[in-house]
Amino acid sequence: MPEIRNVLFIMCDQLRADYLSCYGHPVIETPNIDRLANRGVRFTRAFVQGGVCGSSRMSFYTGRYAASHRATWNFVPLPIDELTLGDYLTAAGRRAHLIGKTHFAPDTMAMHRCGIEDDSEASALLREGGFTLVARHEGDLPTGKADYTAFLRSKGYQGQDPWLDYAVAVRTPDGGTADGWHMRNAHLPARVAEEHSETAYVTDTAIDFIRRQGETPWVLHLSYIKPHWPYVAPAPYHALYRDADTGPVLRDAREAENEHPVVSAYRRSRASQTFADPAVARHVRPTYMGLVRQIDTHIGRILDLLESLGRLKDTLIVFTSDHGDYLGDHGLGEKELFHDIIHRVPFLLVDPTLAADGTRGSVDDRFVEAIDVLPTILDALALPAATHRLEGRSLLPLTRGEATAWRSSVVSELDYGLKEARRLVGLPAASTCRAIMLRSAEWKYVYWHGFRPQLFNLADDPDEFADLGANPRFRQVGDRFRDEVLDWLATRRARATLDFATIERRTGRAPDGIHIGLW
Amino acid sequence: MSKVRNVLFIMCDQLRADHLGCARHPTLQTPNLDRLAAQGVRFENAFVQSGVCGPSRMSYYTGRYVLSHGATWNRVPLSVHEWTIGDYLKPAGLAAVLAGKTHMVPDIEAMERLELDGGSALAALIRQGGFRPIDRYDGHSPPGRESGYADYLRAKGYVSKDPWSDYVIAAEGADGEILSGWQMRNARLPARVREEDSETAYMTDQAIRFIESQGEAPWFLHLSYVKPHWPYMAPAPYHAMYGPNQALPVNRSPAELEDQHPVLAAYRRQEECVNFSRDETIAAVRPTYMGLISQLDAHLGRILALLERSGRLADTLIVFTSDHGDFLGDHWLGEKEIFYDEAIRVPLIIVDPDTASAGTRGQVDSHLVEAIDVLPTCLDALGLPIPTHRLEGRSLLPLLRGTAPGSWRDFVISELDYSFREARLILNRGPRECRAFMLRTERWKYVLWQGFRPQLFDLLDDPFELSDRGDDPGLARVQAELHEQLFAWMRVRENRTTASDAYVEARTARHKDHGIYYGVW
Predict the structure, then answer these.
(1) DSSP secondary structure string, B362-377?
(2) Is residue A142 within 8 angstroms of chain B, CB to CB?
(3) Could you give the domains of chain B?
């Protein structure tokens, strides 16, 4: 009987690693998330496999790089042959329950081709990326709005789209209403009451779920949509940090020299153009900080519940985010590009077993990737590791202080084919708009198909201001990484239909009755 | 408007490109294939995407490189997500009919997960890789229930539980004892089966019956022979048609065994290579291999006569090719897989009945062509769309119709995953460490081996590939350039297969249409 019976996999959306007090933010207080860090291991070098919701999340859920799972950006359906967390659990007679966001887009064309009936169990899982829904909430996306809409209506919020009219709309000082999509309104409180906000709703649903489970083991993906835009916080969180120090807006004259063409195209996007004014960053950041603080409060409610139910001792807890948010740094808004601000995420892992007592409250600077979450969960539940598919590694040897050779770099990818940037650099839809980042402790190398690479010396230039990718002096460093990227591409787990045990068994042995090359 | 209404996609198994009369083999007689070449275009630089049945065929059937379709070796299931010929023909109301071999192994695990079980027509189709078999027969094993061949043989008086082992690949010794065709020493003996009941004759009969039954209704037929693949045993009179002195000279040199590439050295220790490095094996096998090809040719003649008689030559696109070659002792190797041209260059003859191709009939085309081009060529000829977010090959119709664009590809790719081979154990490597990628231009052949030094051949100075320059520092720059090309190739695989280009175009920067207004002030 394994000691871990439950898994709580918490994800925030667009939460930067440096916006938590346990990661050193000087102003925001996140005492409850810090509690998690004290109970478990805080990883300082955890990286996502894509700087945008869809592809990053599919890497979390499949345990595979974007090049392997192929859902390379938002709204690119996850191919039907990919297995997700829920599929691995279902095969073992368990479930992955979902409360909140996945950004999953089903491969409806393949489902149709395979004749999968809409009312079948297979269909229900395929439509939700293998998750069993408690409540799906995607915020802005129509695919996941129904549950929260019904909740708001039940609380008396009327209108066609109460999410838009209350959760995203703000109250103006004169008692009127304004649109929260406009960042100029970020300082005003949401029209929704705090206890009915998205973060509160998702938490309430989770509390209810955990209570109802009683002693039945569970795996819950609790996936908050915040602090992702629209940058609207309910009172009192909208005002908590209004006058606080929001930190420097990272810019450097070197960023304008030799600007990489794709980076330049991203800087011309509306979000970047708007955020290019440091005043915008200083206007929006307090709201973002308030939203983080709000999440922390609600995570405190969950932790209190787990404690009162005795669940802390048999529940593995993962706390992370799908990517960061520029918030005006580097003259950018939104995300996607390869700065650490976007690709490095908070990552806390609470392993409740005795074996992990030695690492509680410790900080681990080894490289973690989003694709490690799924193998970690399977390992914790003593389920098979499916190494012919899974490209990540279980982190339990790290929480349990076991000596193990570890990776020395991480990989992330971008497909900007669905972005305006593609048109700005003059590429048609059928072209390859891909980039691959390799980041070691000292260097960050970004291979851009069709463009020069980017290269940053993180030891000398931790804020990534000086792009050395076009500098001939660093040609050799770049070439070395380039070879590593090629090697990485060549070794993706593409032969996903056969496990290694079968390969081992069949090696050097023709099927019965076949005698090749006999004299 | 193309005149093409039908497609006849003929594949041989393990047929080398240089074993055709029209490809200047000095003694081998293939009058019907020569006729086909005279009516169409013979591509003399056609390469398969892997030198072994399973992955090569899956590339033909999906129109995608091995790195993309993932079925990297024999019996690796083709992912249920991969589309095959049948899926692309569906909009035209055509089925991809199969007579013969595919080597397709379905992704049963995924089918179970998707509840694609039971006897549904759809499940049956997916199990067959999108083909509708009239007779499926993968060869080199006793035919199972998916083929009528065993029953056919018994009905013809070959009384046995396993008439294939006892008659088709068996011969008789001087004292009437049964000798197995598995043993290559018996290759010169005639098979116990009568020629008209052999595998090649039987499958031709199936194809003829199908084409006749179609009448005027359009069709797509994949006629896929299991010969001249081993067991090397031909029925009379083909077993005796050629002698060892009529075979091509053996292409090997003692120097190849010095400083061997580690993976090749390991392959050369496998039984088939040990045996094929003996002169007596080569002398026994090559004439029979040639006989099997002449036999195939004779049966193709029957098909061509039928097409001519029924008027179908005028509206049928004919593709003739093979899944890979056969070393037959060249380079001290038996079998296939390794990237020498003997294994990865295949015959490819395409006859386009459309008058637009009148100007190229009988020509030999030297463009670099790949197996993945066959599917888009067929779709193009039938006037069907070519979904470029999945298909990685190019239609050859512009070459056939003399409307070739200015630019064509300047290299071909082939891949190998030798995880399943004894060579992996000899080299003491794990099943994830056995990939190789070949990039071949007109002049150079570069092979990137995971964990080992690359191979490099200068095909201009060394057309027979006897001198591996992979560790020649004088060619470091050439090697770096080829490496770069391979890298670029690897980077542009069509992996975003669930979103068509039109979908991408329609959804680019359109979030506002969906009520999403991030970044506005």
Answers:
(1) TEEE-S-EEGGGHHHH
(2) yes
(3) 6-408 (3.40.720.10)
